[in-house]
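Reviewers of the previous submission asked for a worked example of the structure-prediction workflow described in the proposal, so we include one complete record here. The input consisted solely of the amino acid sequence. No template or homolog information was supplied to the procedure at any stage.
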Amino acid sequence: MSIRTYHEMNEAIKDLLGQSDEQSDKYILTRILELESKVKQLSREILTLNSVNKRYKEALDIMVVHADDSDVVKDIYNELVIKMDKLEESE
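From that input alone, the workflow returned the following structure tokens.
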């Protein structure tokens, strides 16, 4: 059985849960908010990783083209390492 969900309905349910005095409803609302936050965080991380992956592939393509010029390969590698380090620091 498949159940379709809708953003507007989800928001209405969260509003109702927030108005309730029942501890179980407050727990459910808290958990929903935690999970929504986690989904947003993971979505941002996926976008970041996709961007890094794209740049990594581009760098490798450039390295292959310039494989006979070790200075170019070293420069590209060093630039990639610096960008990866900055990305790790920002997380």
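The helical segments are 7-19, 23-65, 70-90. We consider this example representative of the routine output the project will generate in years two and three.
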